[in-house]
Specification:
2 domains; transcription; 9-stranded antiparallel sheet; globular; Jelly Rolls
């Protein structure tokens, strides 16, 4: 005995250009029938939240599936899977496609070569699937946009839920972020973690989908943008704050990566306000605003 609910969609070519298009969503539980062998022309994320079963890939290798787990079905790859015939399992699935899938694959969010991925928790992924299911109500004029946006959320939720990643993120990436503004080479960063440069590159690419150099550069330039936009520090001082002793080199690097010079970026994005820059993360329900003081002058909200 099993229970199933599913909906399928046919997004227009315009909706495909949003990057990801949702083709279907389903929620099922119980003694579900075996799926396949079959081959699809699009991606499917199957989230197993309770129970267990098996998965057989194109080479015939059988992998045990134990909840919580993710099964990746990728285009052109033959697959065959099903729950334990005695206990069944609880699953939800999302079919999707779009031009953004190769990029998500390159970044490690979609893993064609690891079709069964253990998860630490399926709650976040199920919540994203739930948003797709709610958007799938008949007559919803925003269906394609809402479901497409939720597929992006689902991929992020699945990435966070991987059992091989700590709840607060990869400790190597956390340490790199903490030391990003120190004038260290990649080899020196690796040595601080007892790793070779090659091992560090592998770890960072697995965790962030890019090289250590690009990961550190993204953090440095992000902070530089914040200082340029929210303070009146000279460009040379901003450069030093983010780890560059040579302001001319910093300006060239910033211009090449951002597409505009630091001075021009400040002119476009400057938001210097009384009170200066805050390190406090704002509450989305209570964003920082300027209030009028009793004396009539502006003061920063707290």
């Amino acid at each position: 005995m099993y229970h199933t609910w599913m909906r399928y969609f046919t997004p227009s070519p315009t909706h495909h250009r949003l990057g990801l298009a949702c083709l279907g969503v389903g929620l099922q539980h119980g003694l579900l029938p075996t799926v396949g062998p079959r081959t699809l022309d699009h991606h499917v994320a199957v989230v197993i939240s309770a129970g267990g079963g098996w998965f057989r890939g194109p080479d015939g290798t059988v992998t045990t599936v134990t909840a919580p787990a993710l099964i990746w079905l990728t285009p052109g790859v033959r697959h065959h899977y099903g729950p334990d015939p005695d206990t069944g399992w609880d699953e939800c699935f999302v079919d999707f496609t779009g031009p953004a899938t190769p990029t998500y694959t390159e970044l490690g969010y979609i893993e064609p070569h690891r079709p069964v991925v253990p998860l630490s928790d399926a709650a976040g992924a199920r919540a994203a699937v739930g948003r797709i299911a709610r958007a799938a109500r008949r007559g919803n004029p925003l269906l394609e946009v809402e479901t497409g946006a939720a597929v992006h959320e689902l991929l992020v939720a699945l990435r966070r839920a991987r059992a091989d990643i700590a709840p607060d993120g990869d400790p190597v990436l956390q340490a790199l972020a903490r030391d990003a503004f120190r004038p260290l080479t990649v080899a020196e960063h690796a040595a601080r973690h007892g790793m070779t440069p090659a091992e560090l590159r592998t770890a960072v690419r697995r965790g962030a989908g890019c090289s250590p150099k690009d990961y550190l550069l993204g953090i440095r330039l992000g902070r530089a943008k914040e200082l340029l936009a929210a303070t009146e520090l000279p460009v040379a001082a901003v450069a030093r704050r983010v780890g560059y002793d040579d302001p001319a080199y910093f300006s060239r690097l910033f211009t090449r990566r951002v597409g505009t010079a630091p001075v021009r970026f400040r002119e476009q994005q400057g938001r210097a306000v009384p009170g200066g820059w805050s390190q406090q993360i704002p509450d989305p329900d209570h964003p920082p605003i300027l209030r009028s003081s009793a004396a009539g002058g502006p003061e920063p909200a707290t």
